[in-house]
């Protein structure tokens, strides 16, 4: 299906691996030029080479630490015309109220919560000047059913869901759509890291993490999220804004 995205430009944070890379691949396959931001220059360069080779699109890399608001604003300045912004960078650690220290909590929120907010604040006015644009915040299903053992992540995700709904509720009149995608458990290095921590806590052995992989439903693949992001970025979804789409195989609804 041709989504009509050929020739558009997307900025994707956390775009060198996992879900961010899957979003980059889905948009590259549709003919989008890409700006990819992440902390690691080496992984960015490898992703750029692969996507350019396979899809023939322009890919520009931006090594950046988006916990720093100045770097987020500099990233926006380096990408003067963005049709699609995919906020994806950030991982908030598991732990209850007492295990997640204040410095760790603040650092995680600086990247995922304030990182998303800072880029939206910088990119939205530029989209408004051009009369069109799409912002997609990749958040996480942990915000839909917050739990004590993921309290910092659940609270941060819930805040971003509310932020997305508030910003997207009135954005269409300016030609802009603001949406969120909430992935459930997706087979990434991040999932393995989380399950290793749980296995160490619950089973006393991090190497037994695969015993904790859910079976109903099983984890999805990064491309399951990337394809949804590509569709929502397109004019096929032109009347969808202020909405949070959950991609979790039905786990949250069970």
Rounded to the nearest angstrom, the distance between the terminal CA atoms is 31 Å
Class based on secondary structure composition and strand pairing? alpha/beta
Strand % is: 15-25%
Mean pLDDT: 95
Descriptive account of the structure:
With 254 residues, the chain is an alpha/beta fold. The chain is 44% helix and 15% strand. The chain has helices at residues 18-29, 41-55, 69-78, 102-130, 151-168, 189-203, 222-233; strands spanning 9-13, 33-38, 59-63, 84-87, 133-138, 176-183, 243-247. α4 links the parallel β4 and β5 (133-138). α4 (102-130) runs parallel beside α5 (151-168).
In short:
With 254 residues, the chain is of the alpha/beta class. 44% of the residues lie in helices and 15% in strands.
Sequence-ordered SSE layout with sheet pairings:
Blueprint: E1 9-13, H1 18-29, E2 33-38, H2 41-55, E3 59-63, H3 69-78, E4 84-87, H4 102-130, E5 133-138, H5 151-168, E6 176-183, H6 189-203, H7 222-233, E7 243-247
Parallel strand pairs: 1-2, 1-4, 2-3, 4-5, 5-6, 6-7
Helix pairs in contact: 1-7, 3-4, 4-5
Family: Belongs to the short-chain dehydrogenases/reductases (SDR) family.
Domain Ketoreductase: 8-212
GO molecular function: oxidoreductase activity
Key structural traits:
254 residues; alpha/beta
């Amino acid at each position: 299906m041709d989504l009509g995205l050929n020739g558009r430009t997307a900025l994707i944070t956390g775009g060198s691996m996992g879900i961010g890379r899957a979003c980059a691949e889905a948009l590259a396959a549709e003919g989008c030029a890409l700006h990819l931001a992440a902390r690691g220059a080496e992984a960015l360069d490898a992703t750029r080479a692969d996507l350019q080779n396979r899809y023939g699109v322009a890919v520009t890399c931006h090594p950046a630490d988006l916990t720093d608001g100045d770097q987020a604003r500099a990233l926006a300045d380096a990408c003067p015309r963005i049709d699609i912004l995919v906020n994806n960078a950030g991982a908030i650690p598991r732990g209850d109220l007492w295990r997640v220290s204040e410095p760790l909590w603040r650092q995680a929120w600086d990247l995922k919560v304030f990182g998303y907010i800072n880029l939206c604040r910088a990119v939205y006015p530029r989209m408004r000047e051009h009369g069109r644009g799409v912002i997609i915040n990749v958040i996480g299903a942990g915000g839909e059913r917050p739990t004590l053992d993921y309290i910092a992540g659940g609270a941060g995700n819930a805040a971003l869901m509310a932020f997305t709904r508030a910003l997207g509720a009135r954005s269409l009149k300016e030609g802009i759509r603001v949406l969120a995608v909430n992935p459930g458990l997706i087979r990434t290095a991040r999932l393995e890291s989380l399950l290793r921590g749980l296995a160490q806590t619950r089973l006393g052995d991090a190497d037994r993490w695969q015993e904790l992989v859910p079976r109903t439903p099983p984890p999805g693949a990064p491309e399951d999220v990337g394809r949804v992001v590509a569709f929502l970025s397109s004019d096929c979804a032109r009347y969808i804004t202020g909405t949070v789409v959950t991609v979790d195989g039905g786990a949250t609804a069970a």
